[in-house]
Amino acid sequence: MAGQTGIGLAVETAGPGVRLIRVSGRLDRPGVEALARMLDAQARCGRTPGHVVVDLSGVNAFDGPATERLGAVVARSRAEGVRLHLAGCGGRAELLPLPARQVLQRCSAFPSAEVAVRTLTAARAGTAGGAGTVPGPRRAGDDRAGGRPVSSGT
């Protein structure tokens, strides 16, 4: 059908200062734009948390140029004071074109939404100011278990 994005978005508060957006379907340009509009709407309502985890485990198809556009959404969110983290890409990221993979590698990434939420809420609770520390961008070949890089040879 014309005008439909083919993407599903569901938002939930996963913990103090952590919002979880579950994405399902095809991640194409209209889907990334829908995600960006959702983030903008939350910001306009004053409901922007410190961390937003975008769970991509339900995505069944990634469009390379759209994934590159997702990098711009991540950068804009950071400029607005929101740390946007990706979760659930797993080994599927290796199937994307190189520019799209490079975008994902610049993002903070977790193997699953559950690991991301657990790590981010623990980091927030573990510091007096609530700022916490979170992992930096994932490097190619890293897998994260409990928020810490793990050697791929194990």
UniProtKB/TrEMBL annotation:
UniProt-listed PROSITE patterns: STAS
Region (Disordered): 126-154
Pfam families: STAS_2
Annotated ranges, domain STAS: 16-88
Cross-referenced InterPro entries: MlaB-like_STAS, STAS_dom, STAS_dom_sf
SUPFAM superfamilies: SpoIIaa-like
Protein's recorded name: STAS domain-containing protein
Protein's organism: Pseudonocardia alni (Amycolata alni)
Lineage: Bacteria, Bacillati, Actinomycetota, Actinomycetes, Pseudonocardiales
